[in-house]
Amino acid sequence: MFIEQSKTKTSYKKDKVSEKPIRSIVKTISWRIIGTMDTIAISWILTGQVSTALAIGSVELVTKMLLYFGHERIWDKINFGR
Fold first, then answer.
1. Residue 57 lies in a domain
2. The pTM is what?
3. What is the rounded radius of gyration, in angstroms, for the C-alpha atoms of the chain?
4. What span, in angstroms and rounded, lies between the C-alpha atoms of 52 and 61?
5. Domain total for the chain?
6. Residue 6 belongs to some domain of the structure
7. In the prediction, which pLDDT does 55 show?
8. What is the C-alpha separation between 27 and 12, in angstroms, rounded?
9. Rounded to an integer, what distance in angstroms lies between the CA atom of residue 44 and that of residue 38?
10. The DUF2061 domain covers which part of the protein (predicted)?
11. What pLDDT, on the 0 to 100 scale, is given for residue 12?
């Protein structure tokens, strides 16, 4: 069954029906918040300073969003798996 499902191609319209783009955006933001909270906690444990941990988390939040965006744009140009 899984193999049969993987062989069937889906179109953007079918994907859009199963998961709307706004859902993907909200999931991305919520995952980034979780990741940043993790970075802040690890930084706090390692440095023992809340202010340093918050600074690291703030920088990480912005840089990882920019890196992710660039990563997605590059993968959009690659036909692998389409």
1. yes
2. 0.65
3. 18
4. 14
5. 1
6. no
7. 97
8. 18
9. 10
10. 25-76
11. 60
Query: Is 61 within a domain?
Result: yes
The token pair that represents 69 in the structure block:
């965006």
* Chain segment 32-80, per-residue pLDDT in tens: 999 999 999 999 999 999 999 999 999 999 999 888 888 888 988 888 8
Q: Does 81 map to a domain? A: no
Q: What pLDDT is attached to residue 29? A: 85
In which residue are the tokens 């993987």 written?
6
Tokens read off for 79:
């036909």
* Average of per-residue pLDDT across 18-26: 78
Q: List all residues 6 or more positions away from 60 whose beta carbon is below 8 Å from its beta carbon.
A: 35, 36, 39
Sign of the alpha-carbon dihedral angle for 10, 25, 34, 46: positive
Structure tokens at 3: 């193999």
